[in-house]
Write a structure and sequence with these properties.
Number of helices: 18
Strand content: 5-15%
Shape: globular
Distance between the termini: 25 Å
Oligomer: single chain
Radius of gyration: 22 Å
Structural class: alpha/beta
Largest sheet: 7 strands, mixed
């Protein structure tokens, strides 16, 4: 899930150029029947956007699926992350010439044309393969449904977590006897822990993305703190502004305090934040759990845990990867059965996927001995019940306009160019503009 460079211009061009991109769908899926179909196999096309460590883990899973299903000719395509992926997938669905199955960020579902660009799953067919609604956290499963039909099946959740340097934190007296971070409860305790680390290192104790082209880290940090206060940006249906000013200012003022007191690095981009933590210059790093591969590779002495409950609720900002069925004019038959079999098999084999840090959404995986042996990946698995996704709006979710717009606004709080009050006023204005902008994907939200 490591985020590549994503310019605002590319996002706007991607979501606004659907009509002009009409030839993409045919070019991506192809029309000629491959040799595998002629050999009597069932053709199954799968599009995804996983690169880096996620791409490696996904490939291992795909190869294992192929080995166990010789009667299915699985063709996978890795497309460019972000707006280019969603534009291409949208056009494929609009033309009815889409792949049989694809990956989608769950928080983007509402604006992605369920019933138009996506087809619903056959839950009876999934049940035949041993997958049921009660195999998932209720909140995550519910986000995959629109108008009583299930359009997305969650693969995982990828929340913001707290990385910590075990050597630095031990010197600061923050570790328990088993070398894990002692429980931290409340903003005062977290602030005290940061001060203890700073006393040891002489440097800011915490690093997270604060600036850069299209940075989204400041939004994700705010969203985590604000959700812990019980705040939401939008109404439950995603159609109106629902900001609680007092709660939002509490979160923003805490963010501002962290940099003003020198407890957090003030000016650092995404790659720079990884480098600061990797060079053992801080004790803590806040980001998505997918960066685990960065530190396993360098053998940094680190571990991971949930973001502490600072403001009353143990929530963390997140999104989820999910499987969807892009719209096909004549979906059904063996190819549709193969798509459901594929999704069920992938869910049941998510231990491999969890190696990249993501928390499997398929609950039986969380109890498997081979998953529990994964450290530190299994240490924060309980967060699956406390993740907070954006409200359902077309402009929300991973790689979305809201993340980029509000990331830019809240960046100023962390770098010192905006006051919390100014940032809140500007953030609400930008969300209002998004609410007034028609959904270019043609969805209901």
């Amino acid at each position: 899930m490591a985020r590549p460079f994503l310019s605002r211009r590319n996002v706007l061009a991607g979501i606004g150029g659907l009509a002009a991109a009409g030839t993409l769908a045919a070019g991506a899926t192809g029309c000629a029947a491959p040799q595998a179909v002629a050999d009597g196999k069932t053709r199954l096309r799968y599009w995804h956007l996983f690169g880096g460590g996620d791409g490696v883990n996904m490939q291992v899973m795909l190869d294992a699926f192929r080995a166990e299903h010789p009667d299915i000719a699985l063709e996978s395509a890795t497309l460019q992350w972000g707006a280019p992926y969603y534009t291409k997938l949208g056009m494929a669905g609009a033309g009815g010439r889409a792949p049989e199955v694809a990956a989608l960020h769950l928080a983007r579902l509402a604006g992605f044309g369920p019933g138009k660009l996506l087809d619903p799953f056959d839950l009876d067919l999934l049940a035949e393969h041993g997958v049921h609604a009660d195999d998932f956290p209720e909140g995550i499963w519910r986000r995959g449904a629109v108008d009583g039909k299930q359009y997305a099946i969650p693969l995982d959740t990828h929340p913001m977590v707290l990385f910590y340097n075990t050597e630095v934190c031990e010197k600061a007296g923050l570790l328990a006897a088993d070398k894990t971070l002692r429980p931290i409860e409340g903003a005062e305790q977290f602030t005290a822990a940061l001060r203890a680390v700073k006393k040891v290192t002489g440097q800011p104790a915490l690093v997270t993305e604060t600036l850069g082209a299209d940075c989204i880290g400041p939004w994700r940090l705010f969203s985590t703190f604000y959700s812990q206060l019980g705040g939401t940006m939008l109404s439950p249906d995603g159609k109106s502004l629902a900001v609680d000013d007092a709660k939002a200012l509490t979160a923003l003022k805490y963010m501002r305090m962290l940099v003003e007191e020198g407890l957090a690095v003030r000016r650092v981009d995404y790659a720079g934040a990884i480098g600061v933590f990797n060079n053992a210059k801080t004790g803590f790093y806040l980001n998505g759990e997918w960066e685990i591969s960065s530190f396993l590779t360098t053998r940094l002495p680190f571990s991971m845990t949930r973001v502490p409950n600072l403001f009353g609720r143990p929530t963390a900002q997140a999104d989820c990867h999910a499987f969807v069925l892009p719209h096909q004019k004549e979906r059904g038959g063996k190819t549709n059965e193969a798509a459901h079999a594929f999704v069920a098999w992938m869910l049941k084999n998510t231990v491999e996927w969890a190696k990249g840090g993501h928390v499997p959404a398929y609950l039986p995986t969380l109890e498997r001995p081979d998953y529990l042996k994964l450290t530190p990946q299994s240490a924060y698995r309980s967060v699956v019940d406390d993740v907070v996704l954006d409200e359902p709006a077309w402009f929300a979710g991973s790689a979305s306009m809201m993340w980029i717009e509000l990331g830019a606004v809240f960046s100023g709080v962390l770098t010192g160019s905006r006051t919390p009050e100014n940032a809140l006023t500007e953030a609400k204005a930008r969300v209002r503009t998004l609410l007034e902008t028609p959904n270019p994907f043609g969805g209901a939200a």
